[in-house]
Design brief:
CATH class: Alpha Beta
Number of domains: 1
CATH superfamily: SCP2 sterol-binding domain
Structural class: alpha+beta
Largest sheet: 5 strands, mixed
Strand order of the largest sheet: 3-2-1-4-5
Radius of gyration: 14 Å
Order of helices and strands: HHEEEEHHEH
Number of helices: 5
Number of strands: 5
Length: 131
């Protein structure tokens, strides 16, 4: 399980663990899709942000690209505080979406197929997608 508190949420270690879990995720049979996330207002200040994209399905294993959402069919935009709250289970994506704290960009229909993976990533609950 990806422990956001122990690994430093969105740190290099966190992304390394995410990449490792995604490599084992049984997603190759899903339709091809790329889902990104842009996290704004990082604690480092000065309006810093980080983004990443998870490409999956289409007969290929999942891939993680840190630093870009250019390949994403759809991406979520949220603050660091809200992303961390989701990752630690303090709130849900549905609550953040309903409150307007999360913005969806791109092809929102892609979220339907990618929802289980995205939810697992956001919750740091990758053991659910790793066989």
């Amino acid at each position: 399980m990806l422990d956001s508190a122990a690994t430093g949420f969105l740190s290099k270690t966190w992304f390394d663990e995410l990449r490792s879990a995604l490599e084992r995720a049984p997603v190759s049979e899903l339709p091809a899709m790329a889902i990104g996330q842009r996290v704004t207002d990082l604690p480092s200040g000065s309006g810093a942000e980080i983004c990443y994209t998870i490409e999956m399905g289409g007969g290929r294993p999942a891939q993680l690209t840190v630093g870009s959402t250019a390949a994403a069919d759809v991406w979520l935009v949220m603050s660091y505080r809200d992303a961390l709250a989701m990752a630690t289970g303090e709130t849900t994506g549905a609550s953040l979406l309903a409150s307007g704290a999360v913005k969806i960009r791109g092809n929102a229909a892609m979220l339907v197929n990618g929802a289980p993976i995205l939810e697992a990533v956001c919750l740091g609950d990758l053991h659910r997608i790793v066989t």
